Amino acid sequence: MAVILRDERFLVIRRSQQVTAPGKLCFPGGGIEPGETEEQTLVREMLEELAIAVDPVRLLWRSTTPWGTKLAWWLADIPDTMQPDPDPAEVAEFFWLSRLELNDAEDLLPSVPQFMRAWRRGRLSLPINW
Ligand SMILES: Nc1nc2c([nH]c(=O)n2[C@H]2C[C@H](O)[C@@H](COP(=O)(O)OP(=O)(O)OP(=O)(O)O)O2)c(=O)[nH]1
Question: Best mutation site among 11, 20, 108 for ligand 1, i.e. most ligand atoms within 8 A of its Cβ?
Answer without folding.
Answer: 20
